[in-house]
Write a structure and sequence with these properties.
76% helix, rod-shaped, 4 helices, single chain
Amino acid sequence: MSQDPWLQNYDATCRLAQEIAENIHERNKQQRTGGNPAKLNMTLRASLQKLKQNIAQLKEGLLRASSSRRIMQSEADRRQNLIDDLLTREKQLNATFKGDITEPQPTRSSLMAGGSAASGSGVANPWLINESEETKGLTFGEIKQQQQRIIDAQDAGLDALAAVISRQKIMGQEIGNELDEHNEIIDDLAHLVDKTDDRIRNETRRVKLVETKSASCGMLVVIVLLLIAIIVVAVWPV
């Protein structure tokens, strides 16, 4: 997986800050030994300006990534802390370059990997920063690996979340298909019930018609029988 461009710029800015710290240390050493640090001063001024520009670019890049939600809020907060640390380093380096503060005594927490290479006098170059507890004792490469592991973990979490959302989408589609099938079954049942109801009403009308006809035939039979009886009585000899 390729590294995030923002982190690449951050790494480059950290290396630039380390280089500035080493050059300030070398400049101060030349001043103490009577050397001519003019060339180093010119280099340091340009490097400090470049450091300021790099930090501004990191701030702009973080703002764009955060506003477009390309990174999680926790990662945005972590990167903001990294920028704040760089701003503190920049102030310290500027103050040390101008002579407002003296170089601190080198300690394990103020040295970076590769920054402890001794000069001809064997004096280590201070890194001029206070490291956090998370990175204390780690080399620059180990810090990069730690950052990459965090990004990989976030990517894995996003992949897992995407897989869950995909499964839920498939489940939703399947449920929707089942509902469509059930609706079709319900429509068929409603149609069948309507047809059955119509047939029942038709049969009911037929039964009533038959009952009416049966009653009329019965009355007719009674009248015919009465007429026959009257005729018989009338013609029967006394």
